[in-house]
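YM 10:42: (S)-2-haloacid dehalogenase sequence, as discussed on the call
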Amino acid sequence: MTDTASPTVLVFDVNETLLDIETLAPLFARVFGDAAVLRDWFAQTILHAEAATLAGHYLPFGRLAGGVLRMLGTVRGVPVGEADVEELRTRTLAMPPHPDVVPALRRLAAARFRLVTLTNSAPDPAVNPLERAGVAPLLERQFTVDAVRRFKPAPEVYRQVSDALGLPGPDFCLVAAHHWDTVGAQALGWAGALVTRPGNAAVPALPQPDVTAPDLEALAEAMIGRWRR
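YM 10:58: structure's back
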C-alpha cells in the first residue's frame, strides 16, 4: 500500500474489533474456574476455523465455537453441557460494543468513509448482534463469511466485499484487532488498519498494517490524517 492510495471503504471485523468479547468471561470463570480460559477458547476457535477452511470444510462459526468449548472441557477435565454451549451462544449474541466504537464510526462517516463489516460469524435468524449493540445504523452493509463458506483470511472472503461493491482492492481498508486478518486483506491489495485491543499486537515477521493504534478513536484519527488530507 502506498501513501498515494486512499481507501474509500473501511471494512470492519466484528468480534473483538467492534464488540467486546470480554463480556463472555463470566461463562469461562464459572465453567473452568478461570476467566482467562476465554482467550484460549477464542484463539482455538480461530485456529480451527482456519484449519477447516484449509481442509475444505465449513460449518457456522457459532457451531464451531461451541465445539471448541466442549473440546476445552475434555482437555481440562471439566464437564461442558448443552446449557453451557447455549449460554455461550446467548452471551455472544449480546456482546456490547467497545466504548470507542460509536464515536469512532461517527467521526469516520463524517470524514466521508463508507463503513461496512465483515465477520466470521454466520447470520443468526433471531438476533443481529450489531443491531442489538446499536452499531448497525452507522453501517452501509454487513457481510459474513457464510456467503462464500470459507473463513478469514481466505481471499474469497474479502473478495466478496469488493465484488459486491464493484470497487478495486486499493479502495478498501480492513480494520481489525487481529493481525492475521489485516494480513489476509493486504494480500489482495487492500490497506490494513490494526487496533491493538488488549491481548493483541502485530507480528514483526509478517507484513505490517498501514495504520496501527491502541483504540478505535486513535485509529480513526490516524486514518483520517493519512487518507483524508
